[in-house]
Amino acid sequence: MKILITCESNHPQSMVDQRFGRCQYFGIYNQETEAFTFIENDGINANQGAGIATAQKAIDLQVNAILTGNIGPKAMDVLKAAGISGYVVKEGKVTEAVEQFIAGQLEVITEPSRG
Amino acid sequence: MKLVVLSGKGGTGKTTVSTNLSKVLNMAYVDCDVEEPNGHIFLNHDHVEEKEVFLLNPEFDTTKCTMCGQCVTSCQFNALAKVLDRIMLFPSLCHGCGACSLACPVDAIMEKPRTIGKIQYQNQFYMGILNIKEPMGGPVISELNKMVKESAIFDAPPGTSCSVVKTLDHADFALLVTEPTKFGLHDLKLAVELVKSLSVPFGIIENRAEEEEFLIRDYCEEEGLDLIYQIPFSKSAASKYAGGRLLIEDDDFKVHFETLGQLVMKRLEGA
Question: Which of B77, B78, B82 sits opposite A59 (nearest CB)?
Fold first, then answer.
């Protein structure tokens, strides 16, 4: 299972970025190898549709779950159509969020955030 | 002759200047503030013609589409996403540029018009209206630019964003309307930067000017800018405006706008 975590910086001790489309980095956690990889979000300065672009990235990276703060309505439509669920992380480190997710302690994001 | 009235800051008097000036100069009035056009309140018109404004959006032929995703990659506006078995389009983000249909290797994309707004017009009056929930006024303004062939005053939207840049397309002269407040000055500077970068000749009009307030005068002097006219602050002007009346109904303001009109014409001749 591959998990995408929106991150403020590019290491496992980073804080989870509350923004989905305009997060600083994507952290990818591979549950089989227990390894993290980090990718810079080049869509951070997109004029529009940053959420859609990030959702597309999640699809292309073939992740199974997303850990983040908020997901907007358009990104939510893309993720729903692709069958990828987002999980809420209120605040905290990337490693903690992953542990909580594996322990089943994170809630699914059912409603997009607005504005 | 295309004269554009812009301001940077909202509520400085673009529409007041545009509507009254269009009357004294006998030029057409074009409302480019398509998200919130209000020139029609002052320039009564009884019957108007209407024209719809379209944007071309892609439609996908699923029998031809191979899900290669090249359309998604080609879209600079993130309006497309490739999910499992289909391409999703977010119409409100699509600029209608047609890059996706050019990128498609199997010719699976048809471009279909989608209505995003309309233009109402009659003798010497044009008004662009963007439909509610549409985020992009540019195409409506482009249509106005195409339609208006006569000498006209274009009333720009507030700010200095894409819609204002579009309104300034092929402008012969720009009038920057401001007010003697710090916000007015701050946004005037942005507007000056914009018209300079587009190489449009321009002059400044200070609205609601007060004798003891030198904010705008000082700035224009320091920068060597052409402060064409100062329209004085007046309670009766404010109440005329609030009642949806033209200021030139008042004798004093008629003189103000006629003088302003002559000064502007001099610049237009030089432009």
Answer: B82
